[in-house]
């Protein structure tokens, strides 16, 4: 079933889906136009639908974003059959107060000095296009529905998919 969502409802759906997954692949292009992909852990999905990540200011992804701000985020949780494809624009935020506000003890896993590390910055992704797929049921329920559909010859209702517009 297709279900496109708008405004606040779309942002709440994005926040829920992202919080279930927490890790995505960030795809950048940079000057070369050749795609580079790396896993990223989400720091926050804010009330405007922006997705935030910590990064090292000297990382190649930052150089890519400075050359071309257009990025893609791919989220997947096969266990729950949740998938999100986001095309957006990235910006690098090195404001120390923003970094402290978004900080947590987990930052020290990558940056020993935590939020005080001078190489620590934030990536803010403003979504331009969001496509999602969500079964809205457990994996076991999906398997059962598939089996029942096959036995009785009824088309399987595959969950919900659509676009999110902020």
Order of helices and strands: EHEEEHEEHEHE
At the third CATH level, what is the topology name?
Answer: Pnp Oxidase, Chain A
Question: Care to count the β-strands?
Answer: 8
Strand content: 35-45%
- What is the C-alpha radius of gyration, as a whole number of Å? 18 Å
CATH architecture: Roll
Mean pLDDT: 89
- With strands numbered from the N-terminus, the spatial order across the biggest sheet is 2-3-4-7-6-5
Helix count from the secondary structure assignment: 4
Strand-helix topology:
Layout (H helix, E strand, L loop, with lengths): L4 E2 H15 L1 E6 L7 E10 L5 E6 L3 H8 L2 E8 L4 E12 L2 H7 L17 E15 L4 H14 L7 E6 L1
Parallel strand pairs: 1-8
Antiparallel strand pairs: 2-3, 2-5, 3-4, 4-7, 5-6, 6-7, 7-8
Can you give a write-up of this model?
- With 166 residues, the chain is an alpha+beta fold.
- It has a single domain, classed as Electron Transport, Fmn-binding Protein, Chain A (Pnp Oxidase, Chain A, Roll), CATH 2.30.110.10.
- Helix content is 27%, strand content 39%.
- Strands 2-3-4-7-6-5 form a six-stranded antiparallel barrel.
- The radius of gyration is 18 Å and the shape is globular.
What are the defining features of this structure?
4 helices, 8 strands, 166 residues
């Amino acid at each position: 079933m297709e279900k496109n969502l708008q405004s606040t409802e779309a942002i709440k759906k994005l926040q829920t889906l992202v919080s279930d997954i927490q890790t995505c692949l960030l795809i950048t292009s940079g000057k070369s136009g050749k795609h580079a992909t790396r896993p990223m852990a989400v720091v926050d999905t804010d009330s405007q639908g922006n997705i935030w990540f910590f990064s090292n200011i000297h990382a190649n992804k930052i150089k890519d974003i400075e050359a071309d701000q257009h990025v893609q985020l791919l989220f997947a949780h096969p266990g729950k059959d949740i998938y999100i494809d986001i095309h957006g624009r990235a910006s690098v935020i090195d404001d120390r107060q923003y970094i402290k506000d978004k900080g947590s003890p987990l930052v020290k896993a990558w940056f020993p000095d935590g939020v005080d590390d001078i190489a620590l910055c934030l990536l803010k992704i403003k979504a331009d296009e969001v496509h999602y797929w969500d079964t809205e049921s457990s994996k076991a329920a999906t398997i059962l529905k598939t089996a029942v559909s096959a036995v009785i010859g009824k088309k399987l209702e595959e969950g919900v998919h659509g676009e999110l517009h902020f």
